Amino acid sequence: MNDRDCHPRRFAGWDEGTFLPHEVFAGLEPPYSDLQQARTVILPVPYDSTSEWRSGSRRGPQAIIDASQYLELYDLELDREIYKVGISTLPQVEPLLSSPQDMIDRVCKVVKSLIQKEKLVVLLGGEHSLSLGAVRAFKDMFPELSVLQLDAHADLRDEYLGTKYGQACIMRRIFELCPISQVGVRSLSWKEKQFLTQRKLRPFYMSDLTSGTASLDQIVDSLSEDVYVTIDVDVLDPSIMPAVGTPEPHGMSWRQILDIMESVTLRKHVVGFDLMEFCPGEGPGSCAYLLAKLAYKLVGYTMPQERR
Amino acid sequence: MNDRDCHPRRFAGWDEGTFLPHEVFAGLEPPYSDLQQARTVILPVPYDSTSEWRSGSRRGPQAIIDASQYLELYDLELDREIYKVGISTLPQVEPLLSSPQDMIDRVCKVVKSLIQKEKLVVLLGGEHSLSLGAVRAFKDMFPELSVLQLDAHADLRDEYLGTKYGQACIMRRIFELCPISQVGVRSLSWKEKQFLTQRKLRPFYMSDLTSGTASLDQIVDSLSEDVYVTIDVDVLDPSIMPAVGTPEPHGMSWRQILDIMESVTLRKHVVGFDLMEFCPGEGPGSCAYLLAKLAYKLVGYTMPQERR
Amino acid sequence: MNDRDCHPRRFAGWDEGTFLPHEVFAGLEPPYSDLQQARTVILPVPYDSTSEWRSGSRRGPQAIIDASQYLELYDLELDREIYKVGISTLPQVEPLLSSPQDMIDRVCKVVKSLIQKEKLVVLLGGEHSLSLGAVRAFKDMFPELSVLQLDAHADLRDEYLGTKYGQACIMRRIFELCPISQVGVRSLSWKEKQFLTQRKLRPFYMSDLTSGTASLDQIVDSLSEDVYVTIDVDVLDPSIMPAVGTPEPHGMSWRQILDIMESVTLRKHVVGFDLMEFCPGEGPGSCAYLLAKLAYKLVGYTMPQERR
Amino acid sequence: MNDRDCHPRRFAGWDEGTFLPHEVFAGLEPPYSDLQQARTVILPVPYDSTSEWRSGSRRGPQAIIDASQYLELYDLELDREIYKVGISTLPQVEPLLSSPQDMIDRVCKVVKSLIQKEKLVVLLGGEHSLSLGAVRAFKDMFPELSVLQLDAHADLRDEYLGTKYGQACIMRRIFELCPISQVGVRSLSWKEKQFLTQRKLRPFYMSDLTSGTASLDQIVDSLSEDVYVTIDVDVLDPSIMPAVGTPEPHGMSWRQILDIMESVTLRKHVVGFDLMEFCPGEGPGSCAYLLAKLAYKLVGYTMPQERR
Amino acid sequence: MNDRDCHPRRFAGWDEGTFLPHEVFAGLEPPYSDLQQARTVILPVPYDSTSEWRSGSRRGPQAIIDASQYLELYDLELDREIYKVGISTLPQVEPLLSSPQDMIDRVCKVVKSLIQKEKLVVLLGGEHSLSLGAVRAFKDMFPELSVLQLDAHADLRDEYLGTKYGQACIMRRIFELCPISQVGVRSLSWKEKQFLTQRKLRPFYMSDLTSGTASLDQIVDSLSEDVYVTIDVDVLDPSIMPAVGTPEPHGMSWRQILDIMESVTLRKHVVGFDLMEFCPGEGPGSCAYLLAKLAYKLVGYTMPQERR
Amino acid sequence: MNDRDCHPRRFAGWDEGTFLPHEVFAGLEPPYSDLQQARTVILPVPYDSTSEWRSGSRRGPQAIIDASQYLELYDLELDREIYKVGISTLPQVEPLLSSPQDMIDRVCKVVKSLIQKEKLVVLLGGEHSLSLGAVRAFKDMFPELSVLQLDAHADLRDEYLGTKYGQACIMRRIFELCPISQVGVRSLSWKEKQFLTQRKLRPFYMSDLTSGTASLDQIVDSLSEDVYVTIDVDVLDPSIMPAVGTPEPHGMSWRQILDIMESVTLRKHVVGFDLMEFCPGEGPGSCAYLLAKLAYKLVGYTMPQERR
Question: What's the pTM?
Answer without folding.
Answer: 0.95
